[in-house]
Every structure is written in structure tokens, then in C-alpha cells.
Amino acid sequence: MSETIGVGAEALDTSYHQRRLAQRLEDPTFRAEYERARAEIRQVDEVMRTLDSLRESAGITKAELARKIGKDPASVRRLFSSESNPELKTIVAMAAALNAKIEISVPKK
């Protein structure tokens, strides 16, 4: 199965990478690390999407939020717009500036 991702007028063929990933996922050690990393990224993304939604609901720009937590506006914009791994204290500071708090829940088994 070939997949292409459109980029402007050009398209990127990702079929090689998909085949390579499928091959590497056959290794149990690789699969475990891959799935752990995906879960981690998913959780960070969820937190950042929630904070961004709260920010938008509060009518606060990213630059205003950055000033409230003493951070450079460009670095806060990057946290919301790119794959990044923000420090926990930055996430907690943003949540506090938006009158929210970060909580950890344990899924029921």
C-alpha cells in the first residue's frame, strides 16, 4: 500500500518508510519502545491541546500567556505548534495562568 503526502505541488511517497516501520515492528523490543514513545507523545499532545483550548477560551494570545509565565513568546508559540517536550514546570505554570491545574489519573483495569 503506497501512501503519498501532499506538500504543495509536490507529493512525498512514504511507502518505503511504512514498509520499513512494519518490518521493524516485528521485533518485540522495538515494538515495545515504539508504542511507549507513541503513548508518551500522545499524552503530551493531549495536554498541550487542552491548554491551547483553555487559552483560546480565555481570549489570551500565546504572547500574553508567555508574559504571564515569564517565558519568551516565541518559545511558547513553539510549544503549541511543533512536536516538543515541554518541561513539566512550564506546563504547570501555563495551567495556573489559565486557572487550571494538571492532574494525573490512573486508568481502571
State the secondary-structure class.
mainly alpha
Query: How far do the termini sit from each other?
Result: 36 Å
Could you give a short account of the major beta sheet?
2 strands, antiparallel
Top CATH class: Mainly Alpha
Q: Tell me the CATH architecture.
A: Orthogonal Bundle
Order of helices and strands: EEHHHHH
- Estimate the mean pLDDT confidence: 88
Descriptive account of the structure:
It is a single chain. The protein is mainly alpha-helical and 109 residues long. It has one domain: lambda repressor-like DNA-binding domains (434 Repressor (Amino-terminal Domain), Orthogonal Bundle). 61% of the residues lie in helices and 7% in strands. The protein contains five helices and two strands. It has helices at residues 15-24, 28-57, 62-69, 73-81, 88-97; strands at 4-7, 10-13. Strand 1 and strand 2 form a beta hairpin. Helix 3 crosses helix 4 and helix 3 packs across helix 5 (88-97). The longest helix is centred in the middle third of the chain and has 30 residues, at 28-57. It is extended and about 45 Å long. The mean pLDDT is 88.
What's the short version?
By secondary structure, the protein is mainly alpha-helical. Helix content is 61%, strand content 7%. It has helices at residues 15-24, 28-57, 62-69, 73-81, 88-97, and strands at residues 4-7, 10-13.
Entry keywords:
109 residues, mainly alpha
What are the SSEs and their pairings?
Elements: E1 4-7, E2 10-13, H1 15-24, H2 28-57, H3 62-69, H4 73-81, H5 88-97
Antiparallel strand pairs: 1-2
